[in-house]
Structure formats: structure tokens, C-alpha cells
Amino acid sequence: MKIKYLLSVIISSLLMINLANAAFTPPSAGTFTQGLGDTIVIAPNIPGNLETVINNDITGAVRNDINRVYVLQSGLYEQNAGLDVVDSTGTLSIVGVYAKGKQRPVWYKNEINSSPVAPNVIEANFTLKNVQYEGQDMQGAFPAGDNGDFVISTLNKRVELDNNFIEFSGIACVNGQAVAQGFKFIAKGNYFRNFFLGAQWWAGRVLYAKVPLDTLIFENNAVTSGGLTLLEQNSLTAFLLVDHNTFVNNIKYLSPNPFNLESYWADNLFVNCGIAGEDSINIMNGQDVDHIRNGIIQIDTIATATGNAIGLSSVQPRYLTSKGVADPTKVGLSNIIFYAAENIAAADTTTAWVKYMNGEAPFADGIVDSAASYLTWTGKTPPYGVTNFKQVLYNQRAIALAKGNKHIMISNDYPNIQYQKPANTYFANNTWALDTERANFFIQWNRSSDCYSVPNVTVPVDYNGITLDPSYRFNWGDDDPTTFPGPGNKEVKYTSAKGGITAFTDLPENFTSNVKSNIDGTTVGSLIWTGTTINTASELTAIKAAYSKDEPLSVAVGSTSVNVSSYPNPFTTSTTIEFSLPKATHATLNVVDLSGKVISTLVNENLPAGTHVATFTTHANGLFIVELTTDESVVTAKIIKN
Predict the structure, then answer these.
(1) Looking at residue 607, what DSSP letter applies?
(2) What's the pLDDT at 75?
(3) What is the 3-state secondary structure of 172-217?
(4) Closest by Cα among 27, 23, 19, 15 to 331
(5) What's the pLDDT score for residue 554?
(6) What is the phi-psi region of residue 583: left when phi exceeds 0, alpha when psi lies from -120 to 50, beta otherwise?
(7) What is the SS3 assignment for 330-366?
(8) CA 98, 101, 105 angle in degrees (round to 5)?
(9) What are the sequence ranges of the domains in the chain?
(10) In the chain, which residues have pLDDT < 50?
């Protein structure tokens, strides 16, 4: 259903908000209880021992210690049945022994009597630290249905994933659909590898929680071959921090949810993050800023009209009026804080891949050779041409809000970069993102009957001798479900008592960035390959400090090849504004004042590639913003009239 958005724009008085008094609410993470209970060390290399110890640590139906920490040692933990933990107030903590150079424990699943291993059902707070977790079982199966690996239930739950290597999760790693209120999810220093599941574009989720979230912190993680990574669709997230993450070859939305009350996006690297052509929201039948196209990073206001278009159950009770609708004085446009800085989106530049993403020939006829959708549940006749496989960092709605509201900021001082260089040039180590051969395979497979049926197209049955599910062909490391990564880039058979990486550098890939962050002095993207940890409190302080001094009305989201300059500047009566376009586009050149009011529209027409000039004349003194909008970007420059 198309959401009706609040379109009101705050006038100039709102732009004078004192940031020192802005609603910088701290993350509502609460007090974590791990360590308050005692510990039990679970012996490795005994099939079924992990779930037997944990599930039987009860007296009657009550856990013997509601905050007990279960310690895993180096070795293998074969799980034959699901965890079943019921304790609505305590915390289930599973922590691997960590020591430098020591292999971390491996938790994997193995069917017995041809009965798939059930998901882990946890009616408690949950933490998982320093564990290597294999999401698929030794028979190559995933938890049935829409469950995920860890199913969390009851109200007011907190989940923390810290320093784990989690591989091959199916529908989701964490399923919090049953936590209707008070959910807090924190993931730090993890590598979520090969989450892609070809049978379902909407799978490959780290988090599955279409519920109101009190806190979502996703920090210093890497996600490769992911699907819909953070599925928190159409529900209000009160606080969100996404910083220093690397996303590689993700083929669905990072998150389809634009409703965040206070959110910060900084120092993230997105490589080959696109959208597989399979649903109506991807279909470019217009540029409605309230619907399409979706950006990797999104922001919008929740509906405040009677009935609340996103659903009463999707807003925390504390944000509802006495009449049960979203309270605009608490979650209206003026309450939103949004900051995006030093994020990079890069894409592969192989010829076939670029043509496919852009819908160019030979992928342009809308039938077989196109990035097309063959979705049937829209009630229309497919195919539909899809021209936005390569996602933009920000959709038009986010840009419009950033232009009109000082507290909704897309940074100019700490600029975001989109498609400036080929994808792999952002990596310090020569790790491929998606090479030409795999790109060509993916193009054919994306249009094949293994996904959404396309006439006259069949999926290649073999890729480098691999005949497994096609999704595995875009993964790193060994795709054999009976092995898992060990030290020194070696794959270890699950029957061995050895196994488990000692550090992320044991893996064949290394996504260390070579782009320095000006916010905190480290590099953009995940830092896990350098062994760097991040203190959330100090990182958030640095990001807020950058936000508080950044320029208002700055929207630097375009390619740096689109340039705007003026001379003279400062000027006394008139100034010449010069701008260059790398290709033909519709261009609008506006001059706006600090309230966001358009003073003069100098250009509003289709223009060819090349350099263009316009003249701005005014008798009013002060600071003005020159704003150039093209089909793909918005860039700004400041001019001063003395």
C-alpha cells in the first residue's frame, strides 16, 4: 500500500533550532545483565551437549539462574535440537572463550533421524559473543518456514551480537517479530557472511523485526551477499545508529523502513548494493518522492493522520495520543533528527554489469534481455522494466527533507560519495566484489526460473564445477555445508575436533577500506579486519559533534563529476555560476536563502553534457545557497553578497 507522507516543510524559524538543546536522546539500551549470574562451561565435541545443558538447566519450568552465562571453548558444538529457553526477565548469554590466536568455538547443526534441527526459541534477553555460528545444517537445510536461527519472543527484549562470525543464515539470523514492544537490537564487530538465499529475495536478514524498535545499533559489522539485511518495515525505530559497516553484494534493500525518530548513518561502505527486480516498489513508473525510488539510506515522517497509515501497532505507545494515533508533537517532522555523513556507495564497472543495472542494450527490450520484474501478485501483466537495480544512496524524499530542515542533515562538511570510482578501488586489499564472470552469471540467474519466471531463460547449471543452489556461487570460501572455515584460510571437516577461525584475517577476503574517516580518524567501513573495536558512546559523541557544526541545507549526494562554482565570490551585484555535467540530463539551478526559500530559478531545462553558465543578480546582502539538481544528483555551493 502506498504510504501517504506528511509533506509540510518547516519554515525559517525552525531552522534556527539551537542544536545544543536538540533532542539528542541517548540510546535506550538499558542495563545489560550479563555477568550477574554464574557460569557453566559446556564441553565441546559432544553431539547435542550444547542444547542438552542449556535446555535442562531448569528446576520445573524455572531456570536455575536467570542470568547464567554459558561458556563455549575452542572446538565443535554439534546441535541436534533447538534451544528452548523460557525466562521473560533474565538473559541467556552464550559466550565463546576469547584469546588472541586461539580458535573460536564453532556452533553448527546436524540432523538426526532425518528431522531438521528446529530454530532456537528464546523467551528471554539474548547475547551471543565470540562464536562461529553456521546457519545451514550439515545437510544444507535451513530452519523451516519464516523462523530464522534465533526466535525471540515476549515484550521488552534486548539482543546483542558481538564479535561473531555468522554464516549462511537462511530467512534470518534474529527473528524478533514476536517482540511487539520494547525491542533493543545491538550488533557490533560481527561478520555476517554469505547471507544470500536465492529462493527468496526477501531473505538473507540479519534482523527480522517488523515491530517498533526502541534501539537499533548496527556498528562495525560486515555483511556479504546479503538480502534484506535489516527488515524493520513500516514501524517506528526510536533510535538508530548505523556506522562503520561494510555491505558487499547485497541484492535487496538494506532496510525498507524510513521511519526513524533519531538516526545517524556514518562511515559506511556499500559495494554493489542493488535491488533485484522483483517487486512493484522497484518499478520506475515515475519519480514520486513518497514512494520510489528507495535509497540505501532513507528517512521520512510517519503518518499522523487519523488512523495512522503505518498501523497503530507500529508506533510505541508513548508516542500515541489519547485517541490512539501518532502524536505529531512527539514524532512529527520537527522531532526527527537524521544525519548521514561519509557514506560511500560504489558499484562494479564491468560492461555487462553496468548495462544490466542501467537497463541498457542488450538488456533493454523489456522482455527477455532486460532487468525486468515478472512479479504476478501486483494484479498486472508482467514484465515490468526495472531501471534502478543500482541503488542510490538517498531517494528523492530524503533529499527534499534535507533541503528544507536543518535537523535533517545530509552532510556537506563530511561528504557522502556515490559511484565515484570502481568498487574495488575502495578496498585496501585487492578483494574482488563481483567479478565479470560472476556478474554475467548473476545477470542470467536473476532472470531465470529459479527466481521469478522469465520466458526463454534458464539458469546456468554449473559454475566452476559447483552444482549447488545458485546463491552459493556468489559466496566467499568453501560452499560445502559439511565444512566450515578454520585457521589459515583452510576449510575444516565438521567431523574434526579442530575448527574455528582465530580472527577474521583467517578468511580469504579482506574488506579493509583505504578511505580515511574525518569524523573519527579511522577508515570508512568495517574495521574488523584490523582488529579495531568501537566504543559506541565515544563514536556517537564524535558523530553528534560533526552533526552539530555541519552546514545547513547542504545536500552533497551527487557524483563529484557534477561541479558547481561561482565567480566572483563574494560579489557586490552579480556573480557568474558555472556548472559541468558529465552527461545529458534535466537540470534545475536554484538560488535559495537560509530559510530554504527559492530566491531565483536560473535554469530548469534539459541540457547536454558539458559546461554551462548562468548569472545571478541581487540587491540583498547575505549568504545564499546555489543548488543544482540533476536526474541523479543534488550538489550545492555557497555564495556571499556583500
Answers:
(1) E
(2) 92
(3) EEEEEEECCCCEEEEEECCEEECCCCCCCCCCCEEEECCCCEEEEE
(4) 23
(5) 46
(6) beta
(7) HHCHHHCEEEEECCEEEECCCHHHHHHHHCCCCCECC
(8) 45
(9) 563-641
(10) 1-36, 280-292, 304-310, 367-369, 376-378, 449-451, 468, 553-560
Q: Distance (Å, rounded) from C-alpha 118 to C-alpha 496?
A: 24
Residue with cell string 555560476? 577
610 and 580 in contact (C-beta within 8 Å)? yes
The Cα-based distances of 538 to 28, 30, 438, 519 in angstroms read 16, 17, 40, 11
DSSP 284-344: -S---TTTSPPEEE---PPP-STT-TT-GGGS-GGGB-TTSSB-HHHHSGGG-EEEEES-E
pLDDT of residue 371: 57
How far apart are alpha carbons 434 and 246 in whole angstroms?
A: 15
d(CA 230, CA 207): 5
Question: 273 and 346 in contact (C-beta within 8 Å)?
Answer: no
Q: Which residues contact 537 (CB under 8 A, 6 or more apart)?
A: none
Dump pLDDT digits (tens) for 431-443: 776 666 666 666 6
| Residue linked to cell 531465470 | 448
Q: What is the pTM of this model?
A: 0.81
Can you tell me whether residue 138 is helix, strand or coil?
coil
For residue 239, which phi and psi values (nearest 5 degrees)?
A: -140, 130
Q: Please give the backbone phi and psi of residue 101, each rounded to the nearest 5 degrees, phi first.
A: 80, 0
The full 3-state SS of 565-601, as one line of letters, equals EEECCCECCEEEEEEEECCCEEEEEEEECCCCCEEEE
Q: Return the CATH fold of 563-641.
A: Immunoglobulin-like (2.60.40)
User: Hey, CA dihedral for 419, 424, 429, 431, is it positive or negative?
Assistant: positive
Q: Positive or negative, the Cα torsion across 384, 388, 391, 397?
A: negative
Residue 336 identity (one-letter amino acid)? I
Tell me how far apart the alpha carbons of residues 334 and 197 are, in angstroms, rounded to a whole number: 40
pLDDT confidence of residue 374: 55
Residue type, 631: D
Amino acid, single-letter form, for residue 325: V
Residue whose C-alpha cell is 574525518: 518
Q: Tell me if 392 sits within 8 A of 384, measured CB to CB.
A: no
Q: What's the pLDDT score for residue 359?
A: 64
